[in-house]
Structure formats: structure tokens, C-alpha cells
Design goal:
The complex is a heterotrimer of chains A (about 270), B (about 325) and C (about 325). With about 270 residues, chain A is mainly α. Chain A has eleven helices and no strands. Chain B has two domains: about 240 residues, P-loop containing nucleotide triphosphate hydrolases (Rossmann fold); about 80 residues, Alpha-Beta Plaits. The chains are: A mainly alpha (about 270), B alpha/beta (about 325), C mainly alpha (about 325).
Chain lengths: ~270, ~325, ~325
Amino acid sequence: MRLRGVYFAVAAGSFRRYATYRIATAAGVFTNTVFGIILAYTFTALWSERPHLGGYDQSQALTFVWTGQAILAAAALIGGGFQEELQERIRTGDVAVDLYRPVDLQMWWLSADLGRAAFHLLGRGIAPVVVGSFLFELALPVSPLAWLAFLVSVTLGVVTGFALRYLFALSAFWLLDGAGLNMLSTLLSMFFSGMLLPLTVFPGAFGEVVRALPWAATMQVPADVLLGQYEGARLSEAYTFQAVWAVVLMAAGRALQSLATRKVVVQGG
Amino acid sequence: MDEDFIVLEGLEKVFQVRRRAGRLRRERREVRAVDGISFTVRRGEMVGYIGPNGAGKSTTIKMLTGILTPSGGRLRVAGVDPSRERTRLARRIGVVFGQRTTLWWDLPLRDSYALMRRMYRIPEARFRENLERCVELLDLGGLLEVPVRQLSLGQRMRGDITAALLHDPDVLYLDEPTIGLDVVSKATVRRFLSGLNATEGTTVLLTTHDLTDIEQLCKRVMVIDEGRLMYDGELSGLHEVGESERTLVVDLERELPPIEGVDGARTVRTDGPRQWLAFPASASAAPIVSQIADGWPLVDLSVREPDIEDVIARMYGAS
Amino acid sequence: MAEPQADTDGVTETETASAAARAVPAPAGSVRTGAGPATRNGPARRDPWDVPPEGLLTRLGWGVRAYCFIAAMWIRSTMAYRTSFVMMAAGSFVSSVLDFVAIMIMFSHVDSLAGFSLHEVALLYGMSATSLGLADLLLGSFDRVGTRVRDGTMDTMLVRPVPALAQVAADRFALRRLGRIGQALLVLGWALAGLRLEGGVWALPLLAVTVLGGTAIFGSVFVLGGAFQFIAQDAAEVQNSFTYGGATLLEYPPTVFAKDVVRGVTFMIPLAFVNWLPALRLLGRDDPLGLPGWADFAGPAVAAGCCALAGLAWRAGLRAYRSTGS
């Protein structure tokens, strides 16, 4: 019970910490908006040639673009967030201290990342969508329930994304150059989350595989939930898909963490 | 020129600090980090520069190295205005920041030094000679192949000092060189610095929190507070200026009321049979001790020298 | 305000000049003096040196040389872990391939995008990505200026006798970024193999000059972004809008975008010279803004202008930092 309070405090602290980076937030909103505009134009060109590509009409495709920009920072698809911090602690050896704390390392960082994500969704997500809806014709839902469903899906996506990045971050225990790996992580998540192009547009068997990968849970699924692609009972399918990946990857992170702990213990910190 | 090797005349540094006052309003406030400091340092002198946190020590060092541009006053180091000719002066000065390293975090010490050699265009023979000397005196033998991030704080500091000296600087600025070091490393660093000053004649200016550094290294000390120079002179002179007191600690046979009526001393504290008496640092302890021995059941006693920190604290209090 | 004076450091000081004029010694009464420093004669220095003042060209040459040996040292140190390096370079290559795969997937559904074929888009992509890749290889560490200001390591660069610009530029020089350039060149080669360029023998030189000019323009944006971080330390991400955002924009045909966007990219941020105008000429197409023909060749001049601007911005940023601290 007391521990739960600790995790909540960590999340709240993280939210507040990111809220103090005002200029970074403004810079991020600007960047998201610029990328949103560029993608919106290319999607317009693509969907005017093939009007119902990937099961979206043009305004849905544009909504997909701006939803993506809204989730981008929250799900840390282009990196940022806790990864560099944790790697820095691993590099300097400070992580040894963290491992002996009474709180769980993974849950600690998850709480911090959820706090960050909550701020980024509000601080960096809303403004680009507002700008986008002025510049382009979007198909945003009016029902509050649809938005609620979207929020649940985004949360599950953030947890999945966290679990993925946690695996990448822990690899710093074994690899010297964390920067290169972070770049790899970023580019994988850009491509396989649907950030560059909706995964529903990916052709054939490749598309089937891509839509089943964990990255799909971070952005493609939440965006589809917002666009109403999952109706009624199918919504629970979407949630299940996300939850299964989240659980599997969190467990993998836990296994890797205990390996890392053993390594730290053997080396004597 | 050698007499006025470093010259500060009414040096000032004013920062504009914007602070949030309330939700949207922002207050602009002037902070005079260095507020008209004047002094000169002769070539070959070793000077301690002390003061509490935020007194302006680091700001002064940053202006002396040319990192910061003064907002007023005149500053010359070896006849050069540091802020105007920063990169030119850089070849003649060495800087050690205790809080952060000037070395490359991911590189072995040896690579960092090789890079220093090229940056400072140090002749090969001289470089090798200086490196060997520092490695020997600072005990860096087995560490040259180790990346900086794997060094302990003490090792890193010794590595940093070496890096600052490879190019035979005329002046060495040390900003908190012993902060966080263990006793052995502190001793090594101090021994090295005093040797350096004696044999090479390098002018040394060091800021520190640790007054032992000053006591062991510097004849001359400058005290600053709130950007102003409070004291400039010998360390021993501080006691007179600070009206400091020594303390006589007496252990009596049993718990007694505070000792009273001793000339030139007053009881400042009691704890069971132990009592503390303060008396002026300039006075002799002998008459006080004999008065107490005559009138009270004395078991043991000791005299404590004035704590220089207290002296300085009192100076700050007086200002 | 006193007359600004140029100095050898490349920084104009108005502050010091005006301050020196009203320099007044501190009131003596405020300083309590003790017995005075004891005199001790230090032994003579072994070789006192005096470094002569340097001109702008000397400084430039020295900066470039310093950049080279700092970069070389980083290369050497990464090569100590060769497997790690090879993995990272390969990772960089593979992950940038994904970027182009997205475009190929688009073309699996359509034959042309806004009137451009896949090969034509590949030419745009290859040119833009090569330019950005080269700029990133050469000047990829400018996004760390804000971090350096915050953690104080900028100060350690300023006490060294090497221009800070050269030190920041060479910082963490990472050859693994070659992986991305390799991918970009591959796409470019594939595009050239499938296209017939206009311009005869001049086609390839124009292409090369355009790519290098683009590198200079992207590099200037990196430096500008770095200079901006002296003032706003958390704003590293803004430059991504211009570099990565700009590069993404230029990978697509200008006909995809609204005319205002194209106009903005040409005149406000002269990124169009990186790619669009020369590429449209090579492809034998009209430019949507109808600029005169010479504009196609203006790239190098625009690039030089951008570099000069970036240099001035860097000086201004550094000066702001040096007068305010962090």
C-alpha cells in the first residue's frame, strides 16, 4: 500500500518535472506541427490517387496523421523519455544503488514514464491536433465515449512502448554505445508503429506480420480506436492485443533485469 | 609586469535574473555576483580565494579565464584582457574545475592527453617530460589506459590537474580542487601543488571550501562575500581581523555550576563535568589555566585553536 | 553604448568597452587588509611564451585542423571496439532503409505521386538524404549545445585554445553515420540507373554541387540551432523541424505541397536550393514557382550565404552566453 503511494508520487513528480521544460514543450509542439503538415500533404497526394487506401477515406487518413503527431511524444516514439537517463545511470554505475532500493526498478521507471507520457499527451499532443484541424479537414469523433476508449488504448500503448524501450535501455549493461542502439530503437518504432505510413497500407504477408508486432500497439491501434475502426466487441480485441504485448514485454524486461542484477552483483557494482 | 601579473580593478559582473513571480508576471532582478573587486597577484604567488557558496568565487575564475565577459572594471592576466583574447590566453593558463572534468569522459586518459598536446601545440619532448613528471608525482601510473568515466573522483582530479599542466601554464586556476576527495588524494594533490609552485614558479589561484587547503598551501588568502572582497592578506591575520577566540576545554571531577569569575575568560558551554571557556586568541592560556586549577577540581584540560570557519563566519556576520 | 570593437577572439565587446571607460577602483575602506602577503621569489619560468595575435584566416585554418584531429581521435577510440562500430553502422544502414521502404510501399499502391514516378521521387530522396547525412556526419553534435550549457561542460571548451565551434562540431564524431549516407547513395544510384537526366554532361556535376551545397545548408541549420540553444537551452528539438523535417519535405515532389509551403521553403528557409530546383531541372520539369532559370544554379551562393549567417549567429550566441553565464 505504501509502495503504491511511492509509485504514484514518482509519476506525479515526473509529470511536474516535464511540465517545467516550457521551452522544450514549445519546441516539441512546433516540430510535431511541422512534421504533421508535411505528412498531411503527402497523405493527401496519396489518398487522392487511391481514395480508400488502407480502409481510410481522405479525412480519416489526415486524422491518422495528426493523431500520430499527438501520440508521438507521449509514446516516446522518437526516443526521449527515460531511456537516456537510465542508460546514463548504467554507464556511471549509479544503477547499482537503484537495484538495492526497496522499490522495483522496472516499476519505478514505468511510473516515471507514465507521468511523463501524461504530460506529453496534454502538453504536446493537443496543440498540434488543434492546428491540424484548422488547416485540414479531419474526422475527429464527437462522442466522449470514443475519446475515453482512445485514452485507454493510448495508456496501453504507452505501457507497451515503455516495455520495449526498457529492453533497449537495459542492453546498455552489455553494450558500450547506447546512442546507436537508441537510434535503432527510434527508427524501428517510427516505421513499425505506423508513424511514417499506416500499417493498414502495408501490403500482403508483410503487412500481416507488421500489424502483429508490438510497435503496432503503440500508435496504429490507438489511432484506429479513435477513428472508430474497432466497434463494439472488436474494441476488446484491440485492447487484448495491446495488453498481451505489454505483459509479455514487461516480463521479458523483468527477466533481463534479473540477468543485469546478477551481472552487477558479480562485478561488485 | 611580474609584480602585476594578475590585475583586477573594480571588477564587476552583473547578471539579469528573471524570476517568476506569480502565474504570468516575471520579475527582473539584478544580481551583482562580483561587485567591484580589486587586487593584484604577483607572478609565482599562491593565493587562496575563499567565501561561502554564491559569493562570486567561480564567477571571478570564469572572468579570469575569459569564459565570462566582465560587466565592469578592468582585468588583465599577463597583460592580456582575458575576455578579448580568450583563445590566445588559453595557452598560458591551466584550469581545473573540481565539480566537472575537462577530460573526455569516454576516452582513456592517454588519449585525452594526446588531444591536449595537439590543442595546445606542445612540443613532443616537452609533452613527454611533463606527462612523465605528473604521472610520477600524482601517482597515475596504472591509470593512463582507463577511460575517464571509470576513474574514482580522486583519480579523476589528479588526471585533471595533469591535463591542466601539460602545456606549462604560467597561471593555474583551481576551482574547488579537493572537493569530495578522500584524505589520501587530498594530501597527494596538496603536496603536488606546493611542489609545483616551488619548482616551476607557477602562479596558483585556488578557490576552496576546505580551509586546510589554504592553511597548507597559501600564505595569502582573499575572502569574498556577496561579490565583495572582505579580506586580503596573510592567513594568520584573519584571526586578528575576525576577533577570534580560542577555547579552553576543562574536565572537572564532577558536575558543577558554570565556572565564573575567571579573568579574561567566560564559560560558553557545559556538558556534565565538562565545560568550555572562550578567551581571546591573542591572550595566553596559562593565567586562565592556573586560576581554574586553584579554584576548581580540575581533572584534564585542552586548548582548541580557533576554527577558521568560525572566524570567517563571524566576518560575514559583521558585514 | 560605446562603439563596438572587433577583437581577435571574433567577438565584439560593447560591454567591456563601455565598462572600462567608467572603471573606478573599489573603495579601499571596504577591504580589510592583514599583514600583507609575504614576499617569496619564485624561480624563473623555463620558457615564457608569447603567442602572437591571430588573423581570421589563421583562426579558420587552425579551427579546421583542430576539428580534424579531434574527429580523428573519436574515430580511433570507436575503432577500439570494432564489432560495436560495425553493428552500429549496419544498424544505421538498415534502419534508414526502412525510411525508403515506406515510400516504396506508397508506390506499391500508386504509379505516381503528384505526377512523379518512383524513380523520380528516389532521385529527390537520394539527393536530400545524402546532403542531410553528410551534414549530420560532419556536424551532428550541435543538438548537444543546450546540454553542455546546462551541465557546464561548455566552460571547459571555452578554456581551451581551440575555437568552440570546432570543438562542438567535432564532439563525438561518429563514423557510424556513414551507414545512413550509404543508404542514401544507394537510393540515389538506383534512381540514376532508372532515369534519363536532362542537361547532358552537366547533369552529374550539377548533381554533385547540389548535394554538397545542400550539405552546407543543412550544416548551417545545425549551427544555427546550436546557437539558438545558447539562449533557449531546451530548444534542441526546433532544429529537427528544419533538418529532419526539411529533409523529409524535400524527399517528396514540390507538387505534393501547397504553393505557400513551397514558397516558404524556397525563400524563408532556402532549403529548396538543396534539392527541388536543381532536381526539377535535371528531370526536365517546370518549377512550380516559375523562378528564372538562373535560380537553379544559385545553390552554391545561397549555401555560402547560409554558412556566413550561421557563423554570425554562432558568434552572437556565444557572446550572449559569455555575458550571461548559464
